[in-house]
Amino acid sequence: MNGFCDAATAQKEIVAILGSMPPIAAVPGCIGGMGVVQAFQSAGRDIPVVVFDTDGKSLSFWKDSGIDNGSFAALTDPGQIVAALYAAIAKLRGDEVPDEVVLPLVQVTQENLDYWVETLGTDEYAANAWDEETTDAAIAALLAGEDVATPALP
């Protein structure tokens, strides 16, 4: 089934087939976690591990639902545009910058969920706090063949 990265569509599609399905441990998806949970709740089924969107509304729903089963939220990090600008500036300065800069996605876990719920408005999205220092560190790590560290939460 395809929820088309939309919670309402995911809920509708899952409700249509859930009755014929065996127990389900996890439902991967692009951002329909809220709809997935609502479908399982309406069917009286145990909530599987789901992938939530990183917006304030979805994260608040996750927290308020009391889901603590390994679910998480991950999405392309809107903060990466800041890192891209700093990488471009470094390149213009003549610094060595890899041709391809791949940075970690923003990840919301049970451990940092409270921070994001308290920080974000309903329609705001979680983003890593890339700045010049963390971007330079990421570039250095990439040039050294090392993993890039995600910026610390403020």
In short:
By secondary structure, the protein is an alpha/beta fold. The chain contains six helices and four strands, in the order αβαβαβαβαα.
Structure characterization notes:
The model has no long low-confidence stretch (mean pLDDT 91). Helix 3 (56-65) links the parallel strand 2 (49-52) and strand 3. The radius of gyration is 18 Å and the shape is elongated. With 154 residues, the chain is of the alpha/beta class. The protein has helices at 7-18, 33-42, 56-65, 80-93, 113-119, 132-143, and strands at 26-27, 49-52, 72-75, 106-108. The protein is built from 6 helices and 4 strands, in the order H-E-H-E-H-E-H-E-H-H.
Q: Summarize the amount of helix as a percent range.
A: 40-55%
* Category by helix and strand content: alpha/beta
Rg of Cα set: 18 Å
What integer is the average pLDDT?
Answer: 91
Shape: elongated
**Sheet with most strands:** 4 strands, mixed
Strand order of the largest sheet: 1-2-3-4
Q: Which oligomeric form is depicted?
A: single chain
